[in-house]
Specification:
Layout lengths: L12 H16 L2 E2 H8 L3 H13 L3 E6 L9 E5 L5 E7 L3 E8 L4 E9 L6 H16 L8 E8 L3 E2 L4 E2 L10 H9 L3 E5 H12 L8 E6 L3 E7 L2 E3 L35 H13 L9 H4 L4 H9 L4 H25 L3 E5 L6 H15 L2 H4 L3 E4 L6 H17 L1
Parallel strand pairs: 4-7, 7-10, 11-14, 14-15
Antiparallel strand pairs: 1-3, 2-3, 4-5, 5-6, 8-9, 11-12, 12-13
Helix pairs in contact: 1-13, 2-3, 6-13, 9-10, 10-11
Length: 401
Amino acid sequence: MLKIFENITNNTKDALNKRKIIKQFINDGDMTLNNLASNINLSIPTVTRIINEMIDEKYIQDLGKLKTAEGRHPNLYGLNAEAAYFIGVDIEHFGINIGLCNFRGEIVNLKTRIPHKFENTKESFNTICAIIKDFIKAQDVKEDKILNVQINISGRVNPKTGYSYSIFYFDETPLSEHFSKKIGHHVSIDNDTRAMTYGEYLSGNVTEEKNIIFVNLSWGIAIGIIINGQIYTGKSGFAGEFGHVKAFDNEVICHCGKKGCIETEISGSYLYKTLLEEINNGAVSTLSQTVKKREITLNDIIDAVVDKEDVLCIKLVEEIGSKLGEQLAMLINIFNPESIIIGGTLSEAKTYLIPPIKTTVRRYSLNLVSRDSQLLPSKFTGKSGVIGACLLSRKKIFDDV
């Protein structure tokens, strides 16, 4: 950790209070001394003294007077943007998205769709590490100011232990340690959908809602759950494996090894496979000639929907939306959430995806339960993973110290 943060890594009373203050700023943004003292249950004189120390240590800034309608104008305080930086990495099936954010959680640099076909092999792991290292070297930031690299992993991930049980499970060493050794920076890992959920909750299409379901519709499908403002992880960190609930009477074997999972008919992998089958059977698409020349990606299909209004691709996306609506109606009946947010790669086709979802949700959910549940597209759509990873990267380093 950077030298300026060394004095908050011990367990003295002041160090604990400083960590508490940093977490408060991360969760709630800039605030006055009065609000800060009230939120963390400390006296104003104590908070004033600690904040002044943190300003001298250069990780808190006095942002000047807060304009109010009447009375004295209190000073506003917040995190110093240049005190530290964090990397977020989102691994997709056909590419990698990497971002850099500052101490205030503002995205400084973002690089998306870096070509890489994911495979669960050592070679793919090494390539991902090389891409991350190249991105770090290209930043106009001293490397010792980068405190953490957060890497999103699909499937079953235990963020506390650093183990992934779905991909890159090479041996008994935590995957986070393998990444740290290869990249040369502190690395944390988490489930990709959980990272998206956190990013959306902190900076996306969430206002005052505290009970939210985030749907990650990408190569697979999973959900993130927020209950009373807290991300629900489950006992071992595996909550949200929505895609592996049996929903269909088909004979398709899911990659989890079971048949009929939601993911077998509602996912980017299903869209990809079905489109290729349709084209091979003579259906016409703007991608018909492309598939003869090269392997297409999921992003190619989304681009065909959004930019070229490809009729075949639109039809398949709408069918997925209708099927997804049925499953979300079930979740609404169970959880009665304030919001359901649709994110992930397929959410970029929101004009064609969201309407059929809403139609079938209304058809299959209980009206008294669903009428107060709003259904929204992600603010970040296909970038929600990398933005969530950046923000989670910042959060985790102070959870761990």
